[in-house]
Amino acid sequence: MDARTRLAVSAALILGLLAGCGDDAAGPAAGDPAPPATGEPWYDETTPATSGGTTGGTGSPCPVAVTFPLADGWTANAVEPPKGELAELVGEALTKRGGTTVRCEVDGRSAGGGFLRIWATDTPTAAPRAALESFATGAGETVTGQQFRDLRAGGLDATEMTWLATNPLVEEEAARNWALAVQSAGQTLVFAVNEGLITERTDVLPAYRLAVGGLAAAG
Description:
alpha+beta, 3-stranded antiparallel sheet, 4 helices, 219 residues
């Protein structure tokens, strides 16, 4: 084998090794469900709460196009905008956020938890990731540390986002937020929880994990 041939063979071997290393480093293809992640920021090791029933679907306290399990002791209530001129102004600040309108609230205060809120996008066909990005910035807070992942939520494909939010009007530490968006029956829905002054992740994540882990299209 002459010098030129040896050089060509060596170059081919090196390129093959580099290509193999590149494949290993690439990880899952875009759109593949993300593997479980323990600790900050997802806390997938959190055990879902015990189920105390199911809600969702037409005629339920949470009239959306999916059904999901309720944590034991948590109750679902439809959110209706207040009536009257002043009430409508105040209500919109509480019921509208980043291109979404709140449809229902799952209240866990009696069980020592916080709130899980379900929002519907005002544009029904909004892409899940775009809906999450608008939702995160829609409260007028300073948003940092956004992370996204694709996953399977019960029987539905979903996109999940976590971020830190700081209210510029008050001096407080950034609060961790989690939200998951799914599409069902031509509607994009956002399930959202967050830490706060009186709630910690251990108060809200178990009910959230139970709910999104049991999502199903409403019949």
